[in-house]
Amino acid sequence: MSALNRQRALLDFTVAALARRRIKNLALVAVFATVVFLLASAMFFASSLRREAEATLAGAPDLIVQNLSLGRQAMIDAADLPKIAAIRGVATAEGRLWGYYYDRISGANYTVMVPSAADLVPPPGEVIVGEAVPRVRDFKWQGTPLFLSRHEGDLVRFDIARTLGSDVALISADLVLMNEVDFRSFFNVPAGKFTDLAVTVRNPRELSTVVEKASAALPDARFVTREDIARTYQKLFDWREGVMVALAFVAMLAFAIFAAEKATGLSAEEAREIGILKAIGWDTRDVIAMKLWEGGLVSGGAFLLGTVIAYAHVFWAGAPLFASVLKGWAVIYPDFRLTPAIDALQLGTLLLLTTLPYAAATVVPVWRTAAADPDAVMR
Amino acid sequence: MIFHTPILTLLLVSALAALVALWSAGFGLSVLRRWDLASCSRGQLMMERRTELVSTLFAMVMAAEAAALSLFIFNADRMAALFVGAMCAVGTLNVNGYGFPALYAQIATFFAAAVWLVLDHVDRLGRDYPLTRAKYAAVLAIAPLVLLSGGLQLAYFLNLRTDVITSCCSKLFTPANAGISDEMAGVDPATALWALGIAGGLVAATGIRALRSGRGHGLFALAGAGYFGAALVAMVSTIALYLYENPNHHCPFCILKPDYGYIGYAFYLPLFGATALALGLGAASPFAARASLRAPLPAVMRRLTLWALAGFAAYGLVTVWVILRSHLILFG
């Protein structure tokens, strides 16, 4: 019999043997699939958050220039703008006005900023708000004005020009857009001062040279590139995913111990079956091969089931089990649907991480059973 | 950096491999000292039974090591985004002094594991455990390699610091960075392609001879190892240039990126697989004359030789295809 045919016959026999103990094996697959589901959910969720962060940052400026005073960020002088704009390779440089406003009514922080795009600049006395602002303020009807209070006894009224759509919620949920005059008067920012400078360069490969020249021109400033921010996000999500996976892996180890225990204590029926197989001429290798097929089918089934359920949990249901741990927490949190982001690295990692401990845990009990004498097993 | 899922997985595989290798080496020592198939003692019987367990465990862990090699490279490429200056796996592996040694040790473990798996497969064909001593002597040689590979990997991952500015592949494969990478990049493209062609011819000739006569697998293994070296030199000096359509980009790792349609895997998987099979055939060939293997071995050797030849041919065909569809003109 050729090697392939032998394996086919073993597989055929194993499937029939598994079907004979259907309930027991289905229960094992279900528990294993739950562990795979935990690991896969954490991995899928973190990976799509990384993808989301990448997509969001694609629109960020290449370089942000911040003024530092006493080691903290301070307002930057408008006079610094031409120094940066004059550097060869810089395409655009503009001063940005933005800040945070703590809303005591809702307990949330809003990001207030002056938009650079002309079509997003609201008329005086009006603001454009992100989709979460009317929600946390519980605005019941269209046209409700937004009252902002900077301190006791202070109340500034802004009419809402429009609300931004939920398709950009990840970056705009907590946003309040004002025009420059309103912003300077609301936050008391003197003319000629900006929060920071946003710079774009013509050739991204020249960015490090531009930063080098800019730091010579503004020695006290801090320069943050888009890559720096992207790297920080990636590290953060990687770390959170790693911690979640390490915790879920403890469940995997517990399952491996359970599986080893189960493989050690054979039922009378299974022992009789192995005894008969050995008595009719199967050798130890055949029994080990059959048991390895059994383990392969159980772990393969659990892997597929756990991965598919994790996919549905993360990308259809929004990962209710992990969202708060992996996303972080805020009073205003945008509602957003995650884009599926799965690749071969993730699936390969998941496969090794789940099936290898199971296989390692069961191989010794499997060998012990297979190597025993037929009469000893049956007795 | 240790809390990174692929890193945790690679460390898990390394830890399991180290445990199994240590235990198998201990068992290997007792096999080499006390193995006596003629004996009917309880100790010999137990040892015979235990060889099944060690074979199964070691084979499983070695297969996991082979998967871990792909994962290691794939992950290094993916982590490039975390390090300033890194653009592909080269930058990530250059972050500290353990990266490339860890990769080389992993590759060496892969080939050693493949040779062992072929020996194990051949051993299982005979009813009288014909290769047992050789197999466990090989375990004693492989175990330190597995431990070294695991140790280097652990040192590499523990010393991954994201505030280090690393060098990308365009710096490594230039005359400014003297070393074997520069030597490979500096080989004349015509010489490299001729060398690959000649190595291909030798592999085909020795392979066909082995298929026809059932002998000469040692020569085939030597030719396969030569082809492997020639293929890597040709990749760095010439094939990469055609692939990137850039006469100055020699990196053998960037081709694994999605930007190039993961074509690197079409090169490396057949090349590594075929070389591993050829080396395994070479290691198994001295045992072909054993009485219990005389009947079953030739068919297996023939099948493995065909697979190895197919792998080498696949590398050659992908090379020709890449050169034909490239817009770069290096000759004429």
UniProtKB/TrEMBL annotation, chain A:
<comment type="similarity">
    <text>Belongs to the ABC-4 integral membrane protein family. LolC/E subfamily.</text>
</comment>
<feature type="transmembrane region" description="Helical">
    <location>
        <begin position="242"/>
        <end position="260"/>
    </location>
</feature>
<dbReference type="InterPro" id="IPR051447">
    <property type="entry name" value="Lipoprotein-release_system"/>
</dbReference>
<keyword id="KW-1133">Transmembrane helix</keyword>
<keyword id="KW-0472">Membrane</keyword>
<dbReference type="GO" id="GO:0044874">
    <property type="term" value="P:lipoprotein localization to outer membrane"/>
</dbReference>
<feature type="transmembrane region" description="Helical">
    <location>
        <begin position="347"/>
        <end position="367"/>
    </location>
</feature>
<keyword id="KW-0812">Transmembrane</keyword>
<feature type="transmembrane region" description="Helical">
    <location>
        <begin position="302"/>
        <end position="326"/>
    </location>
</feature>
<dbReference type="GO" id="GO:0098797">
    <property type="term" value="C:plasma membrane protein complex"/>
</dbReference>
<feature type="domain" description="ABC3 transporter permease C-terminal">
    <location>
        <begin position="246"/>
        <end position="368"/>
    </location>
</feature>
<dbReference type="Pfam" id="PF02687">
    <property type="entry name" value="FtsX"/>
</dbReference>
<dbReference type="InterPro" id="IPR003838">
    <property type="entry name" value="ABC3_permease_C"/>
</dbReference>
<protein>
    <submittedName>
        <fullName>FtsX-like permease family protein</fullName>
    </submittedName>
</protein>
<keyword id="KW-1003">Cell membrane</keyword>
<feature type="transmembrane region" description="Helical">
    <location>
        <begin position="26"/>
        <end position="46"/>
    </location>
</feature>
Automatic annotation (TrEMBL), chain B:
<feature type="transmembrane region" description="Helical">
    <location>
        <begin position="6"/>
        <end position="32"/>
    </location>
</feature>
<feature type="transmembrane region" description="Helical">
    <location>
        <begin position="134"/>
        <end position="157"/>
    </location>
</feature>
<feature type="transmembrane region" description="Helical">
    <location>
        <begin position="304"/>
        <end position="324"/>
    </location>
</feature>
<feature type="transmembrane region" description="Helical">
    <location>
        <begin position="192"/>
        <end position="211"/>
    </location>
</feature>
<feature type="transmembrane region" description="Helical">
    <location>
        <begin position="53"/>
        <end position="74"/>
    </location>
</feature>
<feature type="transmembrane region" description="Helical">
    <location>
        <begin position="218"/>
        <end position="242"/>
    </location>
</feature>
<feature type="transmembrane region" description="Helical">
    <location>
        <begin position="262"/>
        <end position="284"/>
    </location>
</feature>
<feature type="transmembrane region" description="Helical">
    <location>
        <begin position="103"/>
        <end position="122"/>
    </location>
</feature>
<keyword id="KW-1133">Transmembrane helix</keyword>
<keyword id="KW-0472">Membrane</keyword>
<protein>
    <submittedName>
        <fullName>Uncharacterized protein</fullName>
    </submittedName>
</protein>
<keyword id="KW-0812">Transmembrane</keyword>
